[in-house]
Fold this protein.
Amino acid sequence: MVRTFLARNGGRKGDLSKFVNAAVRRSVLELTVRQVKERNAEFDQQELLDMIDQEVSAVRAGRP
C-alpha cells in the first residue's frame, strides 16, 4: 500500500525507508508525549508551566 502510494506520487529509490523512518519517529514522539502526560497527570498544570518558565529563564540567563 505504501509502495503504491509512493509510486503514484513520484516516489524514488530510498523514499520507502524515509517514509518508514518518519512514521517511526512520529510514533515514538506520540508515545513519549503520552508517557510524559501520564507521569505528570497528578501535578497542577500551572505549577508545571511555572517550573518550565523558571528553567527556561535560567538557561537563557546562563545559569545551570
User: Anything to note?
Assistant: Residues 44 and 50 are 10 Å apart (CA to CA). The mean pLDDT is 91.
